[in-house]
Amino acid sequence: MGKGGKRRASVLSSHCMAIKKKKKAKAKSKTKGKKKAKAPSSRSVKSSVILSGCAVDPLLVGADKEFLNGFPRKLIQESACLPLRKYRGAGLVVARNEKEAVRFLPKLQRSCDVRLMVVSALHDYGIDLFLRYWEGADHRTAPPLWIPEARRSYVNRLSDTLSVSGKIQPIPVITSLLLSSPLASRAPVLIAGLGQQGHAMFLHGMAGLKLGIRFSSKWMKPVLQRLNDEFDMEAQSADLVEGKGRQEKGLDDLSGLSLPPLKSPSFIIEPRIRRRS
Asked: Where are the alpha helices (DSSP H) in 181-256?
């Protein structure tokens, strides 16, 4: 083979090598793309930390003052996410919506020694008013914000709010919010199924019945069963059944009243409060 032939052969071989390198690079990029596709989606991450199908008003369910004050004040104001309860191995935060929760949850998690769970707020002004009172606004017009000290130990000991696989358990979370609310020691709370949802309504002084928790109707029966257990009452009866809270759980200042199922529609009349102009 002459010099020209050798030169052409070397050019061809180098060209073939370049093509092989390009193919390898493409194969690597494809495998990387596949690996990224297999990574857990934001939806699956959200489903493990957000309690969908439930919303609360922080002004009515209250918060654990010590737990809330353990977070940087600036972060709470910036995120408008309020830490409400600290359980054994888990904590509960209320956020305006799921989008805001996903955005700020990593920052909140770095400031906490337990895994955080998120529940949505019923409305923005519940969070806004709570933040105003917490920041030092006139407390004469504020409802009681902080869960009673006797109830804190009951909440802190609860260990079944997260499953072994790390999923939120809605029943203990909802019942703990009801039983540890600072308003529960001062006013009646009505838990009833209305339409396709369960509602917990607080008789908030002259303001009348106010919705504190809304949750899926599929949780209504187990929530009532757990409340019956907490007050040492039998299962649902055709008559009114009353029970008392246990002292060892800090619930001795509460009583429970189990109502029979209603067979016809109900009606509530409330006084209207004139708003100051």
From this structure: 220-230
Question: For the whole model, what pTM was predicted?
Answer: 0.77
Spatial contact of 87 and 114, defined as CB atoms under 8 Å apart: yes
Residues in the chain: 277
Using an 8 Å Cβ cutoff, are 198 and 180 in contact? no
Q: Which residues pair with 115 in a beta bridge?
A: 90
Q: In sequence order, which ranges of 139-209 are alpha helices (DSSP H)?
A: 149-157, 170-180
pLDDT tens, position by position, for the chain (277 residues)? Answer: 555 555 555 544 555 565 655 656 655 555 554 444 444 344 444 445 889 899 999 999 999 999 999 999 999 999 989 999 999 999 999 998 888 888 899 999 999 999 999 999 999 989 999 999 988 766 666 778 999 888 898 899 998 898 888 888 999 999 999 999 998 888 889 998 888 899 999 887 666 788 999 999 999 999 999 998 988 887 666 677 888 888 888 888 888 888 877 777 666 666 665 545 4
Residue-range domain boundaries for the chain = 45-258
